[in-house]
Known about the structure:
The protein is mainly α and 241 residues long.
Amino acid sequence: MEKIFSLMTVVPAMATDDYVGFTFFVGCMAMMAASAFFFLSMSSFDSKWRTSILVSGLITFIAAVHYWYMRDYWATNATSPTFFRYVDWVLTVPLMCVEFYLILKVAGATKQLMWKLIFLSVIMLVTGYFGEAVYNTGNGPALWGLVSGLAYFAIVAELWKGGAAKLAASAGGAVQAAHTTLLKFVVIGWAIYPIGYMAGTEGWYSGIFGGLPMDVIYNVGDAINKIGFGLVVYNLAVNSK
Length: 241
Ligand SMILES: *C/C=C(C)/C=C/C=C(C)/C=C/C1=C(C)CCCC1(C)C
């Protein structure tokens, strides 16, 4: 009994209005559960889909590990774990680009397409980090956010109208349907992040959405995008077994 009480004193309870802490906690659990789901389902699929499902699981697993640290960082410091956040993104977003390549491989997607998407995603994230954490005063957030946004649009253009779109159209059927759904995640789901970035820029748009914290916006975005993305790929593997 004494042991239990001493444990309770070292583990700080979370305030009921700590939405950031709460979404880090739930996000961590959700990413762990999703990883178990993707990894355990892998063996039931035809070998041509296994790498795609593996990548879905890696995306949520890498996020789970980072959420573990970010939850702790927030509980200890009550400030945004910006560095962990961007390390997570710079690993998982390129893997999401790999996912597009993997599903379009049946239609002849090249490594060149994969590297183009990865390159653009790294530019988007590194410049976003500059605006959020390095040159985050004066015009810094606006300028770096703009560069980041241009890279984001280039990704959307490639997937929607560029070579990737043509490959998806030539593949048709379940692959094209999955590509279209993943594209919607990129256009709608990823648009959540620049909104979080604006909400997080002090004295800029920090008042929009009634002061909803940037981390809550990012955490909700991550859950939708990482788990949702993986489920689209899972669904494709189920439908075209
Ligand atoms: C799992 C994590 C994902 C899908 C993260 C995606 C992040 C973005 C699409 C971030 C985009 C940004 C802009 C387009 C401009 C402002 C800076 C960023 C980095 C927040």
